[in-house]
């Protein structure tokens, strides 16, 4: 007997159908085939994001040029990376609440703008073949975890999102990933070591979110590393989120191949 859907699942699917299905039938089917109402809800939210809508126009413009196969393959990877970032920061915000971590993970766009204030002299470069932006000269974190602590705003962590199905980013072969963590942490250290920059960042965060006090704390103690990736079929991979020595490891409900089915559906819908 088929399992009955909960009211939350039915509501998420109904909202999703209204906002997305008509324009993107193939992507919609791939998302609904994931059978996860939380994922469906997140994609529904992504589909309403004005920046994402603008980038869908960019995707359509690129595809209308009838790119060659190798260029299309590279673009597919860029589109997947862009949309996984959009998914990951929303998903991580939900999952952090489950394990009792209070704060807000800034979106990729909010993270970029914060880094623009902090490193105004650095050259701005395209990311994901023009779907995003990054700052030249240092490792850009995919996201920043920010929270309120008394009368101060605190940068509590840095975030990295990847579609690579690594079981344990802190286990075997961890040196390269530790370097990425170290480089991300150095960006936060750079922000906090400059008193003028610290004031400007605090004012920027407060202007975009009045819940954050203007004063930015210079405390780096307990800086978290938040890592988001797809799940894989492995006995040790049966969890949604876990903490380990100041690291938060979060797994999506879908596998990498399933996410690419969504992206392929999106490209097909946009290409027609």
How does this model look, in words?
This protein has 272 residues and is of the alpha/beta class. The chain has two domains: 7-93 and 257-271, no CATH class; 102-254, no CATH class. 51% of the residues lie in helices and 18% in strands. The chain has nine helices and eight strands. It has helices at residues 7-21, 25-32, 37-48, 50-64, 69-98, 108-118, 175-193, 195-208, 256-271, and strands at residues 104-105, 124-127, 132-135, 143-149, 152-161, 224-231, 241-244, 247-255. Strands 1-4-5-6-8-7 form a six-stranded mixed β-sheet, sandwiched between helices. Helix 1 (7-21) runs antiparallel to helix 2, helix 1 (7-21) runs parallel beside helix 3 (37-48) and helix 3 packs across helix 5 (69-98). The model has no long low-confidence stretch (mean pLDDT 84).
Jot down its keywords.
272 residues; alpha/beta; six-stranded mixed beta sheet; two-stranded antiparallel sheet
Secondary structure blueprint with pairings:
Elements lengths: L6 H15 L3 H8 L4 H12 L1 H15 L4 H30 L5 E2 L2 H11 L5 E4 L4 E4 L7 E7 L2 E10 L13 H19 L1 H14 L15 E8 L9 E4 L2 E9 H16 L1
Parallel strand pairs: 5-6, 6-8
Antiparallel strand pairs: 1-4, 2-3, 4-5, 7-8
Beta-strand share of residues: 15-25%
Helix % is 40-55%
Largest beta sheet: what is the strand line-up? Answer: 1-4-5-6-8-7
Mean pLDDT: 84
Largest sheet: 6 strands, mixed
C-alpha geometry: globular
Secondary-structure element pattern, one letter each: HHHHHEHEEEEHHEEEH
- The class by helix and strand makeup works out as alpha/beta
Tally of separate domains? 2
Distance between the termini: 38 Å
Radius of gyration: 19 Å
Q: Would you report the number of β strands?
A: 8
Uncertain ranges: none
Number of helices: 9
């Amino acid at each position: 007997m088929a399992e009955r859907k909960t009211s939350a699942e039915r509501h998420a699917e109904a909202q999703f159908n209204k906002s997305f299905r008509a324009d993107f039938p193939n992507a919609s089917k791939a998302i609904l085939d994931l059978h996860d109402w939380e994922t469906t809800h997140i994609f529904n939210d992504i589909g309403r994001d004005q920046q994402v809508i603008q980038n869908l126009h960019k995707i359509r413009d690129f595809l209308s040029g009838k790119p060659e196969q190798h260029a299309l393959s590279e673009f597919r990877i860029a589109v997947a990376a862009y949309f996984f970032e959009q998914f990951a920061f929303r998903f991580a915000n939900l999952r952090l609440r489950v394990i009792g971590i209070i704060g807000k993970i800034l979106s990729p766009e909010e993270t970029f703008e914060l880094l623009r204030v902090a490193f105004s002299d650095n050259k701005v470069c395209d990311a994901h073949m023009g779907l995003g932006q990054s700052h030249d000269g240092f490792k850009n974190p995919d996201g920043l975890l920010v929270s309120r602590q008394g009368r101060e705003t605190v940068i509590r962590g840095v975030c990295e999102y990847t579609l690579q199905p690594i079981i344990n980013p802190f286990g075997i072969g961890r040196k390269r990933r530790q370097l990425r963590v170290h480089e991300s942490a150095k960006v936060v250290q750079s922000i906090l070591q400059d008193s003028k920059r610290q004031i400007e960042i605090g004012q920027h965060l407060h202007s975009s979110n009045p819940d954050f006090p203007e004063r930015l704390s210079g405390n780096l103690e307990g800086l978290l590393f938040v890592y988001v990736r797809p799940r894989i079929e492995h006995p040790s991979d049966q969890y949604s989120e876990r903490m380990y020595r100041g690291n938060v490891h979060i797994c999506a409900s879908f596998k990498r191949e399933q996410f690419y089915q969504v992206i392929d559906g999106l490209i097909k819908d946009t290409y027609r």
